[in-house]
Recover the amino acids of this structure.
């Protein structure tokens, strides 16, 4: 049961990480070139 909770947490973190990375890429793409 504890292991299942950990796996769910890992799934949530990986989804969040993918979302955050996509957002960061979008923001960087919108930055004016230095």
């Amino acid at each position: 049961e504890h292991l299942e909770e950990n796996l769910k947490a890992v799934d949530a973190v990986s989804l969040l990480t993918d979302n955050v990375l996509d957002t960061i890429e979008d923001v960087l793409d919108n930055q004016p070139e230095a």
User: Anything to note?
Assistant: The radius of gyration is 15 Å. The mean pLDDT is 88.
